[in-house]
Every structure is written in structure tokens, then in C-alpha cells.
Design goal:
Blueprint (H helix, E strand, L loop, with lengths): L5 E7 L5 H14 L5 E4 L12 H18 L4 E5 L7 H7 L5 E8 L2 H11 L5 H18 L5 E4 L5 H12 L10
Parallel strand pairs: 1-3, 1-4, 2-3, 4-5
Amino acid sequence: MGEHTEVLFLGGRSGVGKTSVGHEIHAQLASGRVRHALIDGDYLGMAYPAPDALGIAESNLGLIWANYERHGYTHLVYSQTVSVLHSSELREAMGGTRQAVGVLLTSTDETACARLSQRENGSELAIHIKRSTSIARRLEDESPGWVHRVSTDNRSLQSIASEIIELTNWTEVRRVSW
């Protein structure tokens, strides 16, 4: 298990565009017929009352990835706010990986605030903005040196996704034959 697995950890603050960029990476890889899976890790531990966030999320990732792997998948795009900080634990939960690429999506506070204002129209907008600002500082300070930084300010989803795909070298992956 894991000896052929390659994973892209996509992290970043709320409002930076992780979900949108993840979907665009998926679309571009699918267009190029590159076999892969996309998992949004923010949902792997979402429950009430809140469980031990890392423990259940890791366990769920391991179970989901094992199923993908049984079906021949070897490449995973994993999007989650702090994935780049917990890549070792996540890789272990997946049964190990051959290669991992970490990308920290970045944006200015103004950009993240504007995006969150469009997405969050309820009473918790201020809380989301405060949390986003705080986690952005933590991610910048604590992300390992091997993690690439990619700005999402004033850029198209297509250009951001293309840049990230180049970092993975997955365009050289065996194409899916139909």
C-alpha cells in the first residue's frame, strides 16, 4: 500500500480558494486524462459534537484512500486548510506515499476578506475573517520548507491550477485509456 501513491497537499487560509483551485486542478487533470482522485479534507472530520479533528480525519482519509487504491488510483489531490502542516500524519494514514508535493495557497487579507464576504453572508462572517487571518499567519510561520507558496491574488483559477500541476509533474503520468 502506498508505494506508488503520489499526493498533492493543497493548504491555505479560508477564502484563499482551495476548493475552487482543487476543482480546477481536477478539471485540468481530467482533461489531460490523468487518473487521479480529489478529496476535500475539510469534510472528513465534520461532525457534531466535534470529534478529535486529526484522529477521525486521518482515519477517514485512510479508509477512503484504500478504496481508491483498490480501484487503481495512485494520485491524490488533497485539499484541507492545514494539510501542509500535517502531511506526515496524512501520508501515514494513506499507508505511505512515494512522493508528496505541498502547496500553500496565499492571498492578502483584503482578498481573503472579500472572498469570504461573498461566501459567508450570515452572522459568523467576522468570526470567519478573524480565523482566516490567524491561520494564515500560522501557516506562513509553520509550513515546512519543501512547501511551495502560490499566490491566488488577481489570478485566474486556470493559471493557478496550471502552475500547481507543473509542480507535481503529473502530466507525465500514464493516461487513462477508455
